[in-house]
Amino acid sequence: xxxxxxxxxxxxxxxxxxxxxxxxxxxxxxxxxxxxxxxxxxxxxxxxxxxxxxxxxxxxxxxxxxxxxxxxxxxxxxxxxxxxxxxxxxxxxxxxxxxxxxxxxxxxxxxxxxxxxxxxxxxxxxxxxxxxxxxxxxxxxxxxxxxxxxxxxxxxxxxxxxxxxxxxxxxxxxxxxxxxxxxxxxxxxxxxxxxxxxxxxxxxxxxxxxxxxxxxxxxxxxxxxxxxxxxxxxxxxxxxxxxxxxxxxxxxxxxxxxxxxxxxxxxxxxxxxxxxxxxxxxxxxxxxxxxxxxxxxxxxxxxxxxxxxxxxxxxxxxxxxxxxxxxxxxxxxxxxxxxxxxxxxxxxxxxxxxxxxxxxxxxxxxxxxxxxxxxxxxxxxxxxxxxxxxxxxxxxxxxxxxxxxxxxxxxxxxxxxxxxxxxxxxxxxxxxxxxxxxxx
Length: 440
Fold this sequence. Notes:
By secondary structure, the protein is an alpha/beta fold. The protein has 15 helices and 13 strands. It comes from Prauserella flavalba.
């Protein structure tokens, strides 16, 4: 496991107590030893990362870099100079990128070292991150998936291969794998991590952070967002906290250990001085509008990428075909998003934070899901993600924090949601929860 987190590594490098090359060497050694079993990385940049780490020694601003010498994994959806961006697919353009995406440039400017690109499912559609080249497994319980679509990033952090990792979240793609793997994952609100290109999936996708602690997640998010005020969790003050375990739309039963984790979180937050009540947003049928975007978003991406449909995996080919039908029928409607956002805003007029389970069901077992049909993939995906996606539709910040385990060792996460601008509140509350053993 990682012997120290991103905050500690960067502080030691800035103070000249640690050679900036050493953390990268250690990370690469761990990857070489363990990733054959974990499957977190699509590409490990061993030589390139060492060269980048050595170059840090000569930076005149080394003592000011917030991520000085910290090895970071990047999700395989953004360009890194000299590397292909594959999106988990053999159908995408595999030509090396001529430059860095904005978030990668921000990581480098902050002193981070890009050690590799993490595994994702094809076009980031599924919460199971496997490809013909490998399966991203849950390091805490390897018989289960690592989640998705940022499954490789969550697995890399949970396995201790890197202290922090970049992810993206369009329908829970940071929070779902973070809960499954037992790590911290935060999706900021819409526009907090700015980029020059249009966000994917009708503006629902956001860049965010995965880490083992709230402090490390805050540091990474602050760099990605170019917001120094987010880099360190602060006292959250006294908050109005709503607690709910009701699954939107379906009202499906939530496994008992997940409900218990939310109850324990509520008790802990009440003991910390927050006002805690049972309350559920008026979800209505907003999840139906989300479903149309889940199909139409990847279909739009396939067009943008210019992929040959024949080269897509069977599950993806069917998903894209359905998405194209949804687009032709005009079923992606802004009024559904506006109505849900209005109801969400009304809920948060009375509450500062909503606490729910992160997952609505236990995750599926690890296997070659890419070889199975679209329906076989869609059923567990929809069951799993009931709590997560609506906050992408509204553009609200949300995060998952570790909250114990099932009897078989599978981690459990609780989900924290706030109104726009609430990223600092979520990080502060997560840090407060970490201070006790409430999750046991």
